[in-house]
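User:
Note these tokens:
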Amino acid sequence: MGTMKETELQKKITKWLRSDLGVEWIIYNGGGCSYDTKVAHGGKLYFSKIPEHQRDSLMKAGGTYQDKKGRFLPLTHKISDSALGFKPMDGFAMFGAYGCLLVGFVEGGGRKLEVFDIDINDWVKFVEGKGGRGSLNYEEAMELGRVIKGV
């Protein structure tokens, strides 16, 4: 398996999201989504690479996160006023949007890339099924997620 930095994969995904295929994917997933990009190094994505706060944020965006009191909470985010350049808005709130991991598996020194779309709720069940320890390999990603074409 080759190496790729997460920032490199993020750039490819951002470009893809602006393409016709990316827009179709967004529409297919209800017109809005939240995602986190990860690269599987050595053919594995270790569970520890998905921190709890990222998992919870994706679940909040999807409307499936419950706090200790059993309340479903939305994802809210304030965009910093100190950000350089053009600020598109003050912030956003999401609830009921598709939340997923976009996991890239790289082979051949970076010549072959396959990106999987893994629903965050499926990811949580998968991790819990393995006792919270371990990793996701390529074969498991094939079973758990969907290959994204054109990235």
Observations:
- Helices lie at 6-17, 20-28, 52-62, 120-129, 138-144.
- The mean pLDDT is 92.
